[in-house]
Amino acid sequence: MAERQQDIEIYLKGPNWDSILDWLKNHFTIVSVNRTSTGQVWELLFENKRLQCLLVEQAVKGGYASIWFKNNHTPWLNDLECANDAHSFLQIEIRCSVGNWSENSKDDDAWHKINHGITETVNWQT
C-alpha cells in the first residue's frame, strides 16, 4: 500500500477558477479564502481537520497554476491520486511529481502528465 505524503502539490494547465472551486467543494468545506499577491490561500476542512491550500495562478511558464495542500489532511494519499481526481473532474492537463520531493533527488525533472485520460512520465524542466 502506498505511503501518505506529508503534503500534496499538483500543477494545472490553463485552469478555470470556478471549476477548481467546484472541485474543492466536492471534497472540502471551505472555511475562508484570502487573496495574496501571488494567488489565494484557502482554509479548508476535511473530516473535521483543518488544512491550508495555496493556489498560485501563474506558478510555471506555459500557463500552469499550482495547488498545494500544505498538510495532507485530504482524501488522497499522494500527488498522483490528487492529480487523477482533479483531471477526472476538470478535464484539463494536470502534472505532478513522480515521487516525494527531496533535495538530492535524481528524478527532479520527471513528472506525471495526465491529459485526455492518459498518464505518462515526462521530463519537465521548469
What structural class is derived from the secondary structure elements? alpha+beta
Outline type: globular
| Record field, number of beta strands | 8
- Gyration radius over CA: 14 Å
Low-confidence stretches: none
The neighbouring-strand order within the major sheet is: 2-3-4-5-1-6-7-8
Would you list the SSEs in sequence order as H and E? EHEEEEHEEE
Major beta sheet summary? 8 strands, antiparallel
Plain-language structure description:
With 126 residues, this protein is of the alpha+beta class. Helix content is 18%, strand content 44%. Strands 2-3-4-5-1-6-7-8 form an 8-stranded antiparallel beta sheet, covered by helices on one side. Strand 4 and strand 5 (64-69) form a beta hairpin. It is globular and about 35 Å long. The termini are far apart.
Short description:
It contains two helices and eight strands; from the N terminus they run E-H-E-E-E-E-H-E-E-E. The protein has helices at residues 17-27, 79-90, and strands at residues 8-13, 29-35, 39-46, 49-60, 64-69, 94-97, 110-115, 118-123.
Q: Topology, please?
A:
Blueprint: E1 8-13, H1 17-27, E2 29-35, E3 39-46, E4 49-60, E5 64-69, H2 79-90, E6 94-97, E7 110-115, E8 118-123
Which key phrases capture this entry?
8 strands; alpha+beta; 18% helix; eight-stranded antiparallel sheet; globular
